[in-house]
Specification:
globular, alpha+beta, about 20% strand
């Protein structure tokens, strides 16, 4: 009997999951070939072989003069254009000290570099459980596993919010501070995005910041066969906005038109991207775009810290969500139908990460 007929994917996935090693554990063990559950299908791998377009980069926006009455309108235009055209942009001079950025990256790296017996105490797969450490959010739903481990800390809603003592000691102080700092940056950007639509600056604060916030500290360790797998598959974020901090190790790519472009590390920079929810409530004025992370061929791990900001206690319209009414007119009718938050969440939790599946579902 050949190896293929002996292979039971579900069993192998379960075995890997129950080991609680994560891909960092596999990488540290010195393996020279990756387990079969991580090998992606030819259609995914063929697209990885296309060289990224080096002539294009996502916009870089300097927020230092955000409170200047003469400069703010220019910033609004820059953010609006970036959110519509690229769906991604980097911000500098955002008010967070570089020492805080470095400490956050270092502490997340330190968590992932702890011995297996220390990290495994946090390894669990249930969603919304205050603090979890897992490899592959969608391990049992995806066609192939990806080369990434993740520490998740819920900052809201209140019923799943992590207490300080729930957070691993090695990164507790940095994680708590980053929750505050990333929110400050997101609020500044959301004000500009709101004004870019002709709305009052605080319009997005209620739906975005009342409750739902998740911190995710990703580790992409060295992969011995990076041409056979990915760090994270192409997807869009289901959020309102996402704020991302990354170290110097590359790998993040964004789709722009028909080409992929590298998102390079900018010292002191933070990456902001538009989520599916904001595309919907802006009635398509802002765009959520596909992005992916390549498997890491460097001996140094790639570390990225992501803060997802989702819709919280915003009641929508009689319990329904949809394009903001202030943006609609006979000349600009809604391009998406209204939906319930239950419908939105059911779509997200029913499958692996993907690209705009919910947006496609509610398009009129």
């Amino acid at each position: 009997m050949d190896e293929a007929s002996n292979y039971n994917r579900i069993e192998e996935v379960k075995k890997f999951d129950e080991s609680k090693l994560g891909v960092k554990g596999l990488s540290d063990s010195g393996i020279t070939s990756i387990p079969k559950i991580f090998i992606h299908p030819p259609e995914t791998l063929s697209e990885l072989k296309q060289s990224p377009d080096q002539s294009i980069s996502i916009p870089l926006i300097d927020l230092s003069l955000i409170n200047s009455p003469t400069h703010r309108p220019k910033l609004i235009d820059q953010v609006k254009s970036a959110a519509k055209t690229f769906g991604f942009f980097q911000v500098i001079n955002h008010g967070v000290p570089e020492s805080t950025l470095n400490d956050t990256v270092s502490s997340v790296k330190a968590f992932h570099e702890q011995p297996h017996e220390v990290k495994s105490k946090y390894y669990k797969r249930e969603e919304g459980k205050r603090v979890t450490f897992t490899s592959n959010y969608d391990l049992y739903k995806a066609k192939a596993a990806s080369w990434v481990d993740s520490l998740r800390v819920w900052f809201g809603p209140e019923e799943v919010r992590a207490r300080d003592e729930d957070i691993p000691v090695i990164c507790r102080k940095s994680v708590v501070e980053w929750g505050v700092r990333a929110t400050e940056v997101a609020e500044k950007v959301m004000e500009l995005l709101s004004e870019g639509l002709g709305l009052e600056s605080g319009k997005f604060k209620e739906p975005c910041f009342s409750e739902s916030k998740v911190f995710v500290g990703h580790c992409y360790p060295y992969c011995p066969q990076p041409d056979l797998t990915v760090g994270i598959t192409p997807h869009t974020d289901p959020t309102v906005v996402t704020v991302l901090l990354q170290n110097e190790v590359g790998g993040l790519q964004v789709k722009h038109g028909d080409v992929w472009i590298d998102v390079k590390h900018v010292p002191g920079g933070l990456i902001v991207n538009i989520g599916d929810f904001l595309q919907i409530i802006s009635n398509g004025e802002y765009n959520s775009v596909e992005h992916r992370v390549l498997a890491n061929s460097s001996k140094e791990p790639r570390i990225s810290i992501v803060m997802f900001f989702g819709a919280g206690k915003w009641n929508g319209y009689d319990g329904y969500y949809g394009p903001l009414r202030e943006l609609l007119s006979p000349e600009k009718p809604p391009v998406y139908r209204n939906f319930t938050i239950q419908e939105f969440e059911d779509n997200f939790y029913s499958k692996g990460i993907d690209s705009k599946s919910f947006i496609d579902k509610i398009k009129i």
